[in-house]
């Protein structure tokens, strides 16, 4: 093409098509956007972050398998698939996918401590999450309010934390049901094993001290002396890898006693060595009473097939959005659904149980200076190496040490400040929080469902009660859309305050905030207009948006009158000259409204 010659329309169209195609591929495979700019500096930071997260996830995975009621190796089986899938599909550089305390609790609740059920639950949860991602159903999560989430996570923190008291104290034969667990734990307190109790408490103190050291460590500056910077780096490394350090310390203590012929601690015991075999998820399982078919397994898991995918998505997307906001970038919620869904689906082929985004490990990732999701590759490789070479050493890890790791991990989930915050901001929101919190101790699904229903009822109550202004003319202002749950309350308010009084008065329905109505509302408004007409007074409408006006005009309501502003409506109702309403005749609609209606 000659210099200065304009591109032909065909070449411009081809260029636009190419750019759209590249953009579409980058949306579905986000790594294509950052991989071309990858640098050695990013590689160094990602390696450090991946190593830090790996040293955190290995002891946590072993501990969370205990929470899930599964053999320890299943925690490690669940800890690496997300690292590789998220490299390709993730939109957050900080998020790490893997086993978490809350997801492990749900797995324990819905899979009866049976690995086959846990693996099948991962497969089915992944399929549901993938379907939601492809259908762009992420908005469904918006119906679960923050008080419900806080109530659930706080109850989960108490349940998980108290469930580890038995391991911390070395108690045996404690049931898993929460209330029975509390009763039997206190009944068996005299059977506490001194060695486990001392070691567990020491591990908790060490974890707390290391965490406080990291939280209060001053930031490293270039002008600091080399010795100071090295000291700060050493403290930061020790504090970041505190789970691995404390568990290794406890295993060394246990091994020292073991070689002298003493066993004061309950140990983790044998762990299957090597990588998990790749195989299709179990669609049937042998039980003491025969073989449970796929249909029977699904029926056994029941509500878990809804609760586990939902909570997994909520937890992961909440983590991604929190760190995206903190570090000034954006995440694609539907792409995150695809990432976690594919992770669970593929993970089920290597015996993983359901996973989600981990807030604690994501925080470690971010604080380590991770630059891209490539840091997850280092974490995944580290987990695979531990499965292949370190499982024999895991035998000596005391269960009390893993219990300490779990308790310290879930303690921040109990948000004590939320109660005071809601008391100051909106006390009514304490209701769904408390309902969820209390019922989750009975059944998790009932707690979440009841809390969500209470939140929806509070929302409907506020929507169904229009704002009322007193005066010679009654003015009502619905807060949002007018739909079938609200019309009866609106009708009762208007009748009680405008018609069923000693001196009936006209009313104005100020609809500037109303963006939609349904057929039930149209029928209700027709009845109201008839009631006002019988009393020989007026009900008029103000501030109708084009979609709402279009519906009301199409309904051809008898006596329908509307005004663009409240002032004009009040002038008309006071019978001041020079003001006329627009009625249902299309010819009376002003030109600017006609343009809107035809748009």
TrEMBL record:
<dbReference type="GO" id="GO:0008271">
    <property type="term" value="F:secondary active sulfate transmembrane transporter activity"/>
</dbReference>
<dbReference type="GO" id="GO:0016323">
    <property type="term" value="C:basolateral plasma membrane"/>
</dbReference>
<keyword id="KW-0813">Transport</keyword>
<dbReference type="GO" id="GO:0140900">
    <property type="term" value="F:chloride:bicarbonate antiporter activity"/>
</dbReference>
<feature type="domain" description="STAS">
    <location>
        <begin position="473"/>
        <end position="576"/>
    </location>
</feature>
<feature type="transmembrane region" description="Helical">
    <location>
        <begin position="368"/>
        <end position="387"/>
    </location>
</feature>
<feature type="transmembrane region" description="Helical">
    <location>
        <begin position="233"/>
        <end position="257"/>
    </location>
</feature>
<feature type="transmembrane region" description="Helical">
    <location>
        <begin position="118"/>
        <end position="141"/>
    </location>
</feature>
<protein>
    <recommendedName>
        <fullName>Sodium-independent sulfate anion transporter</fullName>
    </recommendedName>
</protein>
<dbReference type="Pfam" id="PF01740">
    <property type="entry name" value="STAS"/>
</dbReference>
<feature type="transmembrane region" description="Helical">
    <location>
        <begin position="194"/>
        <end position="213"/>
    </location>
</feature>
<keyword id="KW-0458">Lysosome</keyword>
<feature type="transmembrane region" description="Helical">
    <location>
        <begin position="337"/>
        <end position="356"/>
    </location>
</feature>
<feature type="transmembrane region" description="Helical">
    <location>
        <begin position="393"/>
        <end position="414"/>
    </location>
</feature>
<keyword id="KW-1133">Transmembrane helix</keyword>
<dbReference type="InterPro" id="IPR018045">
    <property type="entry name" value="S04_transporter_CS"/>
</dbReference>
<dbReference type="GO" id="GO:0005765">
    <property type="term" value="C:lysosomal membrane"/>
</dbReference>
<keyword id="KW-0812">Transmembrane</keyword>
<comment type="function">
    <text>Sodium-independent anion exchanger mediating bicarbonate, chloride, sulfate and oxalate transport. Exhibits sodium-independent sulfate anion transporter activity that may cooperate with SLC26A2 to mediate DIDS-sensitive sulfate uptake into high endothelial venules endothelial cells (HEVEC). In the kidney, mediates chloride-bicarbonate exchange, facilitating V-ATPase-mediated acid secretion. May function as a chloride channel, playing an important role in moderating chloride homeostasis and neuronal activity in the cerebellum.</text>
</comment>
<feature type="transmembrane region" description="Helical">
    <location>
        <begin position="435"/>
        <end position="460"/>
    </location>
</feature>
<dbReference type="Pfam" id="PF00916">
    <property type="entry name" value="Sulfate_transp"/>
</dbReference>
<feature type="transmembrane region" description="Helical">
    <location>
        <begin position="71"/>
        <end position="89"/>
    </location>
</feature>
<feature type="transmembrane region" description="Helical">
    <location>
        <begin position="96"/>
        <end position="112"/>
    </location>
</feature>
<feature type="transmembrane region" description="Helical">
    <location>
        <begin position="47"/>
        <end position="65"/>
    </location>
</feature>
<dbReference type="InterPro" id="IPR036513">
    <property type="entry name" value="STAS_dom_sf"/>
</dbReference>
<keyword id="KW-0406">Ion transport</keyword>
<dbReference type="InterPro" id="IPR001902">
    <property type="entry name" value="SLC26A/SulP_fam"/>
</dbReference>
<keyword id="KW-0472">Membrane</keyword>
<dbReference type="GO" id="GO:0016324">
    <property type="term" value="C:apical plasma membrane"/>
</dbReference>
<feature type="transmembrane region" description="Helical">
    <location>
        <begin position="303"/>
        <end position="325"/>
    </location>
</feature>
<dbReference type="InterPro" id="IPR011547">
    <property type="entry name" value="SLC26A/SulP_dom"/>
</dbReference>
<keyword id="KW-0039">Anion exchange</keyword>
<dbReference type="InterPro" id="IPR002645">
    <property type="entry name" value="STAS_dom"/>
</dbReference>
<keyword id="KW-1003">Cell membrane</keyword>
<comment type="similarity">
    <text>Belongs to the SLC26A/SulP transporter (TC 2.A.53) family.</text>
</comment>
